[in-house]
Each structure stands twice: as structure tokens, then as C-alpha cells.
Amino acid sequence: MPAGAATQTVSVQATVVKPLTLAKLQDLNLGTVTLNPGSWSGATVGISESGVFSCANPNTTCIGAVQPAQFSVVGSNNQVVRVTAPNVTLVNQANSSNTLLLTVDAPATISIPNSGNKGVTFGVGGSVTLSSSTANGTYSGTLNVTVDYQ
């Protein structure tokens, strides 16, 4: 050994995880919203990631089957998964110049437990804000959900 040389050891570790699998179980649906006459704004209609529906503004009447989107994520046990779901522009199918912004309600993270389950199911909801000038028609868009290990 050369004079003044020093040696140190460190431990080495690597964690290997299974690839994540994300499956869609159901689409998000806000039902049918009837706008009351008059001049008004700021009516929010939405559904939370847990499925709680909100249509409490007196200027709107909501009917129909509503549901949050639902997904199943499968991966390695005892891992935390980050969920990314950006807001969605919904386009009126009769006139593409009319749009609504769906503000997404999604969990920030999901924990995959060590329970032997075949994945974890989670919901994604969202809300839109309507006014008396919102054009009638069916609005639709694509909700992109991404999961990755934290």
C-alpha cells in the first residue's frame, strides 16, 4: 500500500419491484345537468374520488347515473404509488368551440399493502363549473391517469 492510502467499505443495496399495471374499471360520469333560466354563474357540479356527488346550486338540476372513474393498480407489495391525473378539457360534441374544464379530484398516492390482494382499486372524480350561458350538448374528453412508484 502506498504511504497515506486509506480504504473504506460501504454496503450496497438494490430494490427490485414488479412493473405497475393500471386497469380501467369504469368511466367517470357526471350525469345530466339541467340549467335553470335566468342569468347566473358559478354552479359547480362534481363527484369526488370516493363517489360523493355534488349538485347543490339552486340554478342546476342533476339526474342520471353518476360515478367516479375507477382504476385498479397492481405492483409490488409494501410500495407507495404516485397518481398523476391532469385536468381535462371537455369538448361539446355538437360544437367543438364550446368547452368545459373538468377539475380532477384524484388521490396523490396509493399504498399497495402486503395483503396478498390482486391490486388496489381507487377512484378519480372531478367537477365542472357552469353558468347560464353554458351551451347545451354532450361534453366529453379523455382523462389520462398515470401511476409510478414514489
Features:
about 150 residues; 13 strands; 3-stranded antiparallel beta sheet; mainly beta
Give your account of this protein's structure:
The protein has strands at residues 21-26, 32-35, 43-47, 53-54, 60-63, 69-74, 79-84, 88-92, 99-105, 109-112, 120-130, 139-140, 146-149. It is mainly beta. The chain has one domain (21-149). The strands form three sheets. Strands 1, 3, 4, 6, 8, 9, 11 and 12 form an eight-stranded antiparallel sheet that branches. Strands 10-7-13 form a three-stranded antiparallel sheet, with no helix packed on it. The model has no long low-confidence stretch (mean pLDDT 95).
Mean pLDDT: 95
Instruction: Give start-end ranges of low-pLDDT stretches.
Output: none
Main sheet summary: 8 strands, antiparallel
Report the β-strand fraction as a percent range: 35-45%
Number of domains: 1
What's the structural blueprint in terms of helices and strands?
Blueprint (H helix, E strand, L loop, with lengths): L20 E6 L5 E4 L7 E5 L5 E2 L5 E4 L5 E6 L4 E6 L3 E5 L6 E7 L3 E4 L7 E11 L8 E2 L5 E4 L1
Antiparallel strand pairs: 1-6, 2-5, 3-4, 3-11, 6-11, 7-10, 7-13, 8-9, 8-12, 9-11
Summarize the structure.
The chain has 150 residues and is mainly β.
